[in-house]
C-alpha cells in the first residue's frame, strides 16, 4: 500500500504493535463467539466459521510474536551492558499530525449531526490546514475555505450527492 | 459487443476517461498515493453517474496512475508507485544523460502499445470466456472466492498469515448486517445504521483514504534530493515534447519488446493479488536476459524502460479479467470498481457477463481508449506532474481528508458513516504500521456477501451435505487446487523453518 516507509523501528514497536492488533482481533472474535446464542443457526453460521478460524490463526501468530518478543528482550538485556537500547521511533506512531487528523474526523462526525456537513467542512478544512501549517496561516485559511467550497459544489451540487 | 463499444463514445464516458486519466497521472506521481486511494474517493460518484462512466473513469485512473508513477521515477529516481522502481533503473540514468524527455516518450509509447494490444486481445477473448462462466454455479463460486483469497494472501511473501487474518477480518466485517436469509442482526452492536447492506464505502474510504493519510502524516519527509535535482534541471514542456517524440519513435520501432512484455504483464495481472509491481520487475528482467547487451541495463538502456512500462499497463488490464469475468477482484482498485457495481444494484460475479455485458465491454473499450490517450495527455502533463511531487504532504492531506469525509457521508447522507470510516481508518492505520496488509480486508468485505450467499445456496442445494463442493468437474478441480496450495504452503513453511534452524557453516 503506497510507498514503503524507510524509517527503522525499534524492536518493541515492531513486535508489540502487531501483538496489540492481534489481541484486538482475538478479543473481537471471542466477544462474538461467547456472547451470541445459537451459533449454528443459518444466519450465524458464516460469521461463526470465519471468526473461529480468525481466532485460531491469530492465536498461532500471537504465540510466534510473543516468542520473538521474549527472545529479543533476552538479547537486549544481554547487550544493554554495552549500549543503551534506543526507543526513539516510538513517537512515529502517534505524531501531532496523526492526532490532528483523527480529531478533525471525530469532530467532523459530531458536528455534521448538529450543524450539517457543509458548515462542518467549511469550518474544519481551513482549521486543519492552519493547524498543520501555522506559518502561512492566512494562505491556509483562504485555501481551506476555497477547497471546502469547491468540494461541496462539485460533490453536493454538480453530482447531487446526498450530503447531510 | 459492437453497440457497447460505440456506447463508449458517449460524451459522459469520454469526459470520465479524460478526467480519470489526468487524475490517475497526478495520483501516480505523488509518492504515498495510489490508484486505489483515488478510486476510493471517486466511489460515491458512481451513485449519480451512469455505471459505465463511473467504472470507465476508475479504470482510467488506474491506467493513468501506472504511467504517472513513472514520471518522477524517470526524472528524479523517486518512483511514484512501487512498480515504477523498475522503470527508474534505466529511466533515471537516461535523465542523467540529458535524455529525460526521451525516456518519458519511451515509457508513454510502451504503455500505449501494450495497453491497446492487450485490451483488444482481452476484449476478443471475453465472448468465449463468457461460455466458461456459465459452468460456474454456487459451489464453484464459493470455492473460487476461497481460492482467490488464498492466492491473494499467498502473494504477500512473509506476511501470508497476517494477510489471511486480514482477509478473514474482511469477511467478518461483511457479515456486520442483517442476515440476507433470515433477517437476524449480526455483529451490529445495536447500531440500526448497520442493519442495511454492508457499508462498503466507509470501509474502503477508511482503509484506503484515512489510514493512508494517517500513515503519510506519521512519516513526513520531503526529500531534499528531489528539490535539488529539480532546481538544477528545469524542463520546459517544449523541451520535453521534442525529446519525447524521439522516445515514441524508438518504442514504435520495437513493437515486439512491448508486446512480449505486455503478454508477461497480462499473465501476471490475471492472477488475483499479484499486481503490476511484480509484472514491472519480471518484464525488466526478461528484457535484460533477452538482450544482446545485458550489461547496459541499469545504465540507461531504453529497452528497460519500455519493457517495464509495457508490462505494468498490461498487468492492469489483466486484473480486469478475473474482476469482470468472475467477479473476483484482481487488485484493490479492481475491487473498488466492483463496489461501484454494488452501489448501482448490480451483483458482481460470474453472471456479470450475462446480466451486464454492455457495461463490461464498455469498460474494456475504455481501457483501449485510455491507453491511446496516455500518449498525448501524458506528454503534456509531464512538467506539471513533476512540480506536484515537490508539494509537501501536509498541504495535500487536508484536501484528501475532506474528500474522505465527503465520500464517507455521501452514500447514505449519514454522519454515522463518517464515524465508522474514522474508526476503520484508525484501526487500518495501526494495522499498516503493524505490517498487516489492508488490501485483503477490502477484498474480504467485497467478496463476503457473495461468499455467504453461495455457501448458503450450495448447502440448500446439497441438503446440508458438504459433498456438494465435490460434485461437478469444475468444483473438483477447484478443491484439488486449494488442497495443493495448502500442502505447498505448509511444505514451504516447514522448509523455511528448517533452513532458519540449520547451523550456519
Walk me through the structure.
Helix content of chain A is about 75%, strand content about 0%. Chain A has about 160 residues and is mostly helical. With about 500 residues, chain B is mostly helical. The longest helix of chain B has about 35 residues. About 0% of the residues of chain B have low confidence. At the A-B interface, helix 1, helix 2, helix 3, helix 4 and helix 5 of A face helix 9, helix 10, helix 19, helix 20 and helix 21 of B.
Chart the SSEs and their pairings.
The complex is a heterodimer of chains A (164) and B (505).
Chain A: H1 11-35, H2 42-79, H3 96-115, H4 117-132, H5 137-158
Chain B: H1 2-7, H2 11-29, H3 35-42, H4 51-68, H5 70-76, H6 84-96, H7 100-133, H8 138-154, H9 160-174, H10 200-217, H11 224-232, H12 237-252, H13 255-270, H14 275-290, H15 302-326, H16 332-343, H17 352-355, H18 357-389, H19 393-410, H20 415-433, H21 439-461, H22 473-501
Amino acid at each position: 500500500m503506497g510507498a514503503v516507509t524507510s524509517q527503522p523501528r525499534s524492536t518493541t514497536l515492531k513486535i508489540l504493535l502487531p501483538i496489540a492488533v492481534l489481541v484486538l482481533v482475538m478479543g473481537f472474535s471471542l466477544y462474538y463467539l461467547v456472547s451470541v446464542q445459537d451459533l449454528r443457526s443459518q444466519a450465524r453460521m458464516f460469521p461463526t466459521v470465519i471468526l473461529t478460524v480468525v481466532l485460531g490463526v491469530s492465536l498461532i501468530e500471537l504465540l510466534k510474536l510473543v516468542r520473538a518478543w521474549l527472545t529479543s528482550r533476552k538479547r537486549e538485556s544481554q547487550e544493554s551492558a554495552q549500549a543503551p537500547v534506543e526507543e526513539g521511533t516510538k513517537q512515529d506512531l502517534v505524531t501531532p499530525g496523526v492526532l490532528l487528523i483523527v480529531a478533525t474526523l471525530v469532530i467532523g462526525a459530531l458536528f455534521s449531526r448538529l450543524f450539517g456537513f457543509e458548515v462542518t467542512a467549511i469550518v474544519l478544512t481551513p482549521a486543519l490546514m492552519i493547524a498543520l501549517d501555522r506559518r502561512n496561516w492566512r494562505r491556509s485559511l483562504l485555501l481551506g475555505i476555497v477547497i471546502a467550497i469547491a468540494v461541496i459544489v462539485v460533490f453536493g451540487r454538480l453530482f447531487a450527492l446526498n450530503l447531510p | 459487443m459492437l453497440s457497447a463499444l460505440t456506447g463508449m463514445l458517449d460524451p459522459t464516458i469520454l469526459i470520465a476517461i479524460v478526467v480519470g486519466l489526468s487524475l490517475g497521472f497526478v495520483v501516480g506521481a505523488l509518492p504515498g498515493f495510489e490508484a486505489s486511494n483515488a478510486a476510493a474517493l471517486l466511489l460515491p460518484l458512481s451513485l449519480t453517474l451512469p455505471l459505465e462512466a463511473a467504472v470507465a473513469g476508475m479504470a482510467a485512473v488506474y491506467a493513468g496512475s501506472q504511467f504517472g508513477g513513472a514520471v518522477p521515477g524517470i526524472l528524479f529516481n523517486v518512483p511514484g508507485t512501487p512498480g515504477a522502481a523498475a522503470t527508474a533503473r534505466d529511466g533515471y540514468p537516461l535523465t542523467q544523460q540529458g535524455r529525460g524527455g526521451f525516456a518519458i516518450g519511451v515509457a508513454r509509447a510502451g504503455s500505449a502499445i501494450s495497453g491497446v494490444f492487450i485490451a483488444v486481445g482481452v476484449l476478443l477473448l471475453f465472448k468465449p470466456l463468457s461460455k466458461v462462466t456459465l459452468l460456474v454455479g454456487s459451489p464453484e463460486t464459493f470455492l473460487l472466492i476461497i481460492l482467490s483469497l488464498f492466492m491473494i494472501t499467498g502473494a504477500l511473501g512473509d506476511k501470508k498469515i497476517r494477510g489471511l487474518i486480514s482477509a478473514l477480518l474482511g469477511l467478518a466485517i461483511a457479515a456486520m448486517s442483517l442476515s440476507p436469509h433470515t433477517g437476524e442482526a449480526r455483529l451490529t452492536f445495536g447500531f440500526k445504521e448497520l442493519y442495511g447492506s454492508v457499508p462498503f464505502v466507509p470501509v474502503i474510504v477508511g482503509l484506503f483514504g484515512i489510514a493512508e493519510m494517517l500513515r503519510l502524516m506519521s512519516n513526513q519527509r520531503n526529500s531534499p534530493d528531489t528539490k535539488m535535482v529539480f532546481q538544477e534541471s528545469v524542463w520546459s514542456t517544449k523541451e520535453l515534447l521534442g525529446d519525447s517524440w524521439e522516445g515514441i519513435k524508438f518504442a514504435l520501432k520495437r513493437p515486439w519488446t512491448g508486446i512480449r512484455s505486455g503478454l508477461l504483464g497480462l499473465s501476471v495481472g490475471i492472477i488475483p493479488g499479484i499486481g503490476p509491481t511484480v509484472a514491472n520487475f519480471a518484464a525488466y528482467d526478461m528484457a535484460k536476459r533477452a538482450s544482446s547487451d545485458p550489461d547496459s541495463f541499469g545504465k540507461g538502456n531504453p529497452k528497460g524502460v519500455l519493457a517495464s512500462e509495457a508490462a505494468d499497463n498490461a498487468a492492469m488490464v489483466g486484473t480486469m479479467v478475473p474482476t469482470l469475468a468472475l467477479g473476483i477482484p484482481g487488485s484493490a482498485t479492481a475491487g473498488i470498481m466492483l463496489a461501484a457495481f454494488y452501489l448501482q444494484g448490480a451483483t458482481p460475479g460470474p453472471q456479470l457477463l450475462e446480466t451486464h455485458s454492455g457495461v463490461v465491454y464498455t469498460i474494456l473499450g475504455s481501457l483501449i481508449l485510455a491507453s491511446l490517450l496516455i500518449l498525448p495527455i501524458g506528454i503534456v502533463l509531464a512538467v506539471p506532474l513533476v512540480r506536484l511531487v515537490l508539494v509537501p504532504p501536509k498541504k495535500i492531506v487536508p484536501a484528501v481528508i475532506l474528500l474522505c469525509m465527503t465520500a464517507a457521508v455521501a452514500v447514505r447522507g449519514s454522519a454515522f458513516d463518517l464515524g465508522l470510516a474514522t474508526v476503520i481508518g484508525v484501526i487500518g492505520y495501526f494495522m499498516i504500521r503493524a505490517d498487516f496488509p489492508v488490501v485483503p480486508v477490502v477484498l474480504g468485505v467485497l467478496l463476503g456477501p457473495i461468499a455467504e450467499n453461495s455457501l448458503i445456496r450450495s448447502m440448500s442445494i446439497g441438503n446440508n451435505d458438504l459433498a456438494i463442493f465435490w460434485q461437478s468437474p469444475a468444483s473438483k478441480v477447484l478443491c484439488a487446487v486449494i488442497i495443493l496450495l495448502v500442502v505447498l504452503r505448509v511444505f514451504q513453511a516447514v522448509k523455511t523453518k528448517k533452513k532458519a534452524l540449520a547451523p550456519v557453516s
